[in-house]
Amino acid sequence: MGLPPRHALGALRVLWPFLLVIGVFQTLFGDWQTALRLCAQLAALVLLANAVTLTTRVHAMLELFERLARPLARVGANPDRVALVLALTVRSVPMVQVAWRSAREGYQARGLTGRPYLLVVPVIVQLLRMADATGEALVARGIDEETRGTRTGSSNTGR
To answer: Which among 18, 113, 85, 93 is positioned nearest to 52, based on CA atoms?
Structure first.
């Protein structure tokens, strides 16, 4: 099965401005070999994350992450929460592609050309909005109940 070439190219198309900035920065303040290695590693990780998210159910990811996080319970971590954070992180990678595509379409609809770096701020804003919506959905489903009760030292009934 794997990652279809069309999806792989789409993921890399979205990623290239970020890789360019990282590569230039690393070349200026380091060396070109490190810049090349770092950009190749980032691209490979994004492709791997896309392949995983396209071929794996969220439930299966949660089960795996929970199983891997069980030893962390010995130091006070909640394996369910660790699994949820990891699953959300992996699932969020394709959101960057969606945000980039949306920003690019708006950019082109305004008749703008060149200067693709102008898309970075709208992409970040859209990703922050998506993250906020995800957080609200988790709270609405009671995911944050345990944290709120612990933080305030009281139950959530006084709201």
So the answer is: 93
Q: What is the pLDDT along the chain (159 residues), one digit of tens a residue?
A: 566 777 777 777 778 888 899 999 999 999 999 999 999 999 998 888 778 777 888 788 778 888 888 998 899 888 888 888 877 777 777 788 788 888 888 888 888 877 777 788 888 888 889 888 888 887 887 776 555 444 444 444 443
Sign of CA dihedral 27, 94, 45, 84: positive
Nearest to 118 by CA among 107, 127, 108: 107
Cα–Cα distance list, 114 to 66, 90, 118 (Å): 45, 31, 9
C-alpha pair distances (Å), 136 with each of 23, 69, 106, 129, 144: 35, 24, 26, 11, 10
pTM of the model: 0.49
Secondary structure tally for the chain: helices H, strands E: 6, 0
